[in-house]
Structure formats: C-alpha cells, structure tokens
Design brief:
single chain; about 130 residues; AhpD-like; globular
Length: about 130
C-alpha cells in the first residue's frame, strides 16, 4: 500500500462525503477485500481526484456523466452525494443527467434520475 496515496485519498474523500458514508463505503469493502478497499482509496481519490487542474466540482460532474453513460447506478448515489458536497447544485446534477440523455439513452438516464431522486429525498432537497 502506498500510504501517502492512501492518506491523500482519505483526505480527498473527507472533502467529498460525510464521515458516515466514507466509513460505510471503505469499511464495507475492507471487510470483503482489504486490498480492494486500499485501491479504491489510493487510485481514484489519492491519485486522480487530488490532482491539480480540475476542482472537485468539475471532477464530480465528469464522474456523474461517466457513470450515467455506463449505466453504473450502483456507484451513482455515492457520487451524487459527493457532487453536492463539492458544490454542484441540485439543478446542475439534474442537468448533467439530462445532458447524458442523447449519449447514453433513456433507460440509463432514467435509471440515474431514480438514483438522484432517492439522494435528494435523503437530503430533503426539492427541485
């Protein structure tokens, strides 16, 4: 394990999600496979999200678009929370989903919208 990248990843994640979500996510994966948990923290968050050049808001917007186009709804709730914490407005999140519509199609965009609605309900956000 690259302890610097891991520490940087945890630092970045602390800016993006609540301590509860961070602990649930990392500890949940760690119980299943500790090496995978380390990689999840070190690579995307310690090495990519923490790079200069784009801020967390911009990176979150790109992540949402990528997840929508892949149909990766299982990862989307975590990243919607992170995007809101990074400064995206609820309207910007919805617009990002809408922008993916011509590229990803209705099924993926509507699936993503369902995730967004659940996250907004959890956070008592109305649009």
């Amino acid at each position: 394990m690259d302890s610097k990248a891991y520490e940087k990843g945890i630092e970045t994640l602390n800016k993006m999600v609540s301590p509860d979500i961070l602990e649930q996510t990392v500890e949940g994966v760690k119980k299943f496979n500790p090496d995978l948990a380390k990689l999840i923290v070190e690579f995307p968050f310690g090495s990519i999200y923490s790079r200069p050049g784009l801020n967390l808001k911009q990176r979150s917007l790109m992540t949402i678009a990528s997840l929508v186009t892949q149909g990766a709804e299982g990862q989307l709730d975590f990243h919607i929370h992170a995007a809101l914490n990074a400064g995206l407005t609820p309207n910007e999140v919805v617009e990002a989903i809408m922008h993916c519509l011509p590229y990803a199609g209705f099924p993926k965009a509507l699936g993503a919208l369902g995730v967004v609605r659940r996250v907004f309900e959890e956070r008592s956000i109305s649009v």
